[in-house]
Specification:
The protein is mainly beta. The chain has an 18-stranded antiparallel beta barrel. A 3-stranded antiparallel β-sheet has the order 17-19-18. Strand 22 and strand 23 form a beta hairpin. Helix 2 runs antiparallel to helix 4. The radius of gyration is 25 Å and the shape is globular. The relative contact order is 0.11. About 10% of the residues have low confidence.
């Protein structure tokens, strides 16, 4: 009976909130009732692992890390690419520091992630249990709240597409913020406030007293793309609701409240659309998740934006600011079907179809294919699509055993190019194999080919061999 009660307690204990005294008692009980727990079908090794994990948290700092060494050869034909053909680089060299502190019954959690590549802190934040069972997070965090809606997010596959991978539309950014989150039985709600003043095109810019861009490093001329990026307050609100095992719904809002900055008067141009000033950017979005069963899911997401951007255009005699009408009310939507490997036995499947309307802005980009398309970058942190575009993506992943896995993917993009253009569809495809040497060391060999669709541009090819070490 005591073993049965212990098993029930171990099943529900919150391993992030137990005190050191609780841990010590659990350790003693697990040892004393080892045989009885085994007879009840309770995996004692798993329990001991959880208890030891909690004990290590309460005992001090926990340090982990990751190394990714890439050997790659690039055959890049895009004129705007300055990378060498061959290179050996640390794609990732990181140390993570975790520390649980404060009240043992309800501890706070500090995380610091040091990036050796940039010799800087990539993440540094504290999670603080707050009023009314909320969680307050302050610092620079890596949160991704749209992971359900893109290939490589929550979808289980041995590899997630291109080298850079696909990303979410609005989040999945490392920003300094003040966030409050509340969990409840049907899901969670959260919101954060942030302010970004991002270095643009390698230069650090600030807004002068007249509300115009000026350069801290002596660069006087500021282009269209720089003016739009600007500094802005960001407000983000989201609710994630899971009504039952099958049906889930997400609803959110993101607003960037800009400072109306623009290039210095001497740099304004009446050539459309060279000079822009950024006021505000609002996005509302909704996502639907329907799980047919634990292995097959259908999803859909819709984003609607309101861009308040002005452009400097010629009037009959002099220039003046006007609404950038071609940026009004863009939207983006996508439908997805994910199938885990347990269904087809030999492969998992991700199918996605979506559309963008001209002028849609993503704070960090629209996917890896856009690294070879011209005219998409809007400053150091955002990208705007200059045309309407349809696209589809297919991803297949195969887990052959505990050691070996393979993947293949194909993405096709059909932009509505400018009239008279001879450009065609853009595409990206790739394949790869992964070998897990041991729990800490993995090797991967990948090939990727991207075609920007630009008339006269050759295809870009990359071969990469990656060694990944975690500890």
């Amino acid at each position: 009976e005591m073993a049965s009660a212990l098993a029930r307690a171990l099943a529900v204990v919150d391993m992030t909130k137990a005190s050191k005294q609780d841990v010590e008692m659990l350790q003693k009980l697990v040892v004393e009732f080892h045989d009885e727990l085994e007879a009840l079908g309770v995996r004692v090794d798993d329990i001991e692992g959880k208890v030891n994990l909690l004990d290590s948290r309460l005992g001090g700092w926990k340090i982990s890390g990751e190394l990714r060494l890439d050997i790659r050869n690039d055959s890049i034909n895009s004129a705007n690419n300055g990378k060498p053909d061959g290179q050996m680089t640390f794609n990732r060299a990181r140390l993570r520091f975790d520390r649980w502190f404060g009240d043992p019954e309800n501890p706070m959690h500090f995380v610091g992630l040091f990036d050796g590549n940039g010799a800087a802190w990539k993440h540094y934040y504290a999670e603080i249990p707050f009023f009314y069972d909320t969680l307050l997070t302050v610092g620079k965090t890596p949160d991704d709240y749209e992971a359900d809606y893109y290939y490589g997010g929550t979808f289980s596959a041995p590899a997630t597409g291109g080298f850079a991978g696909l990303a979410s539309t609005l989040t999945d950014r490392d920003i300094i913020k003040f966030q409050l989150e509340k969990q409840f039985g049907m899901g969670r709600i959260l919101g954060y406030v942030a302010h970004e003043n991002t270095p643009i095109n390698g230069q650090s810019f600030e807004v002068d007293g007249a509300g115009r861009w000026s350069s801290k490093s002596g660069v006087a001329s500021i282009a269209q793309t720089d003016a739009v990026a600007g500094s802005a307050w960001e407000l983000f609100l989201m609710g994630k609701f899971q009504f039952n095992e099958q049906f889930g719904f997400d609803l959110g809002f993101q607003g960037f409240f800009g400072d109306n900055a623009h290039p210095a008067d001497a740099n304004l141009s009446t050539t459309t659309p060279i000079s822009l000033k950024f006021n505000d950017l609002y996005t509302i979005f909704a996502g639907l998740r329907f799980n047919f069963n634990e292995n097959i899911a259908f999803k859909g997401v819709y984003y609607h934006q309101k861009n308040e951007v002005d452009e400097y255009l010629a009037q009959p005699a002099t220039g003046a600011w006007h609404d950038a009408l071609d940026l009004d009310d863009p939207n983006h939507w996508a439908l997805m079907l994910s199938v885990n490997q347990d269904v087809l036995k030999f492969t998992s499947v991700w199918l996605e179809y979506g559309q963008y309307k001209q002028g849609f802005v993503s704070p960090h980009g629209l996917g890896s294919i856009f690294s070879v398309l011209d005219g998409t970058t809007l400053g150091g942190w955002s990208k705007m699509l200059p045309w309407d575009m349809k696209y589809f993506r297919i991803g297949l992943g195969q887990e052959w055993n505990e050691k070996w896995a393979t993947h293949v993917f194909y993405y096709s993009y059909d932009p509505d190019w400018a009239a008279g253009s001879n450009n065609g569809k853009a595409s990206e495809w790739g394949l790869g194999v992964r070998y897990k040497y041991n729990p800490n060391v993995t090797f991967g060999l990948n090939f990727i080919q991207a075609d920007s669709g630009v008339d006269g541009a050759d295809k870009d090819n990359v071969v990469r061999f990656r060694t990944q070490v975690t500890f």
